[in-house]
Design a protein that fits this description.
This protein has about 325 residues and is α/β, with parallel strands linked by helices. Helix content is about 35%, strand content about 15%. It has an 8-stranded mixed beta sheet, sandwiched between helices. The protein is globular and about 45 Å long.
C-alpha cells in the first residue's frame, strides 16, 4: 500500500448479486422450472497461501531483499505467479508500462467462460517497496488472490459472470500499474466490469478486520461472510484512496475489498473485539525490512483468504 492519501470519494453503483430461484409446485399445478443450486465457495487452504508467500520471500532474498518495481525481484515474482496461472488453464497477458524510468508490468488472468459483458475482477499489487520483501504488503493479498484463482481452476467453476484476476505493478509509486490498466480500457470495457475487489495487506500481525464501504452490495457480501464467523468488522478508512481500487472507483467501477491494517495503532475497543496489542500498529513492519514471512498473522490471513473466495463466488453467480 502506498503512503500518500488521495482522499477521493465517488458514489459507486450497486453490483447485482445473483439470488437462488427455485420453483415450487402446488397440488394440481404445473411444476415451475428450477435453476441449479449455487456453487459453494471452497475453503482456501492457508498452507497453499503461505507456500506462495515463502516463494515470494525466497525471490526477494535472492534479489537484493525486495520485489520492487523495475527490479529483478518484481520480474521473478510476476514469472512465478504467471506460471501457476498458465498451468491451471487461465488466459494470461502481461501489460507493460513505464514508471520512474523503469519498465513495469501488470499481469492479467482471465478464466475462460462466463458472460464477458459482466466481469467480476479481483486484484492486488505484486510490488514491494525497495526497503523490504513486502510479504504482508502485499505478498498477502497477491498470494490469496492467486490461490483463489487456482481454486477456481481446481473446482472447474463455471460462473454466470466472467472472472478476471490481476496483479499490479508500481502500486508503491502511486498506483501506477492499476491506473495504467484502467486508462487503457475503452469506456465500453470499463462498463463491463460489474465489480472490482481489491486486497492489499490482509495478514497484518496485529490485525484488524476492515471492509471497504465504497459499494453497498460488495460491502454487504464481505460483512455477511465475517458475520457468519462471528467476527466484527469496521469500515476501512486508513487506506482509503491509497490502493489499486482508487483508479477503478474514479472511473465509475463499483469497488470493494478487505484490509487488516498498516501503521495506524490498535485502540482498546479494537483489541477487545479482535485481540492483539493495544497501542501498537496493526503492522509494525509496514514498509520495512522486517516485512518477512514472520510478519504474518495466520488467522487473519486464513479468514481473509476464505472471504475472498466467498465474495468471488457470490458475486459471480
Amino acid at each position: 500500500m502506498k503512503l500518500l492519501l488521495s482522499g477521493r470519494a465517488l458514489t459507486a453503483s450497486a453490483v447485482a448479486v445473483a439470488t437462488l430461484v427455485t420453483g415450487g409446485s402446488a397440488a394440481g399445478a404445473a411444476t415451475a422450472p428450477t435453476r441449479p443450486a449455487a456453487a459453494a465457495a471452497p475453503d482456501i487452504p492457508i498452507a497453499n497461501v503461505k507456500a506462495h508467500l515463502s516463494q515470494l520471500q525466497s525471490i526477494a532474498t535472492a534479489n537484493g531483499g525486495n520485489r520492487a518495481h523495475g527490479r529483478a525481484g518484481y520480474q521473478a515474482s510476476l514469472t512465478y505467479v504467471k506460471a501457476k496461472l498458465d498451468a491451471a488453464g487461465f488466459t494470461t497477458r502481461v501489460q507493460q508500462f513505464t514508471a520512474s524510468g523503469r519498465t513495469g508490468y501488470n499481469l492479467i488472468a482471465d478464466w475462460p467462460g462466463g458472460d464477458t459483458q459482466q466481469v467480476v475482477m479481483s486484484g492486488s499489487h505484486l510490488d514491494s517497496v525497495t526497503s523490504g520483501p513486502g510479504i504482508n504488503d502485499n505478498g498477502s493479498g497477491s498470494s490469496a488472490v492467486l490461490e483463489t484463482a487456482l481454486a477456481v481452476a481446481r473446482s472447474g467453476y463455471q460462473p454466470t459472470k466472467h472472472l478476471r484476476f490481476a496483479w499490479w505493478g508500481a502500486e508503491e509509486l502511486g498506483l501506477v500499474g492499476s491506473r495504467y490498466y484502467v486508462n487503457s480500457l475503452s469506456s465500453a470495457d470499463r462498463a463491463k466490469i460489474s465489480g472490482y475487489l481489491n486486497f492489499d495487506m490482509i495478514g497484518s500481525p496485529n490485525p484488524g478486520y476492515f471492509v471497504y464501504d465504497d459499494d453497498p452490495t460488495i460491502e454487504k457480501t464481505f460483512k455477511d461472510y465475517f458475520a457468519g464467523l462471528g467476527v466484527s468488522t469496521e469500515i476501512e478508512t486508513e487506506g482509503d484512496g491509497r490502493s489499486d481500487h482508487a483508479p477503478f472507483k474514479n472511473a465509475g467501477v463499483p469497488v470493494g475489498g478487505l484490509f487488516s491494517g498498516a501503521d495506524y495503532r490498535k485502540t482498546s475497543a479494537q483489541a477487545a473485539k479482535w485481540g492483539g496489542t493495544v497501542g501498537q500498529p496493526f503492522d509494525r513492519c509496514y514498509h520495512s525490512s522486517c516485512d518477512t514471512t514472520a510478519n504474518i498473522n495466520d488467522t487473519a490471513l486464513d479468514r481473509n483468504s476464505d472471504a475472498i473466495a466467498y465474495a468471488v463466488w457470490a458475486l459471480s453467480q
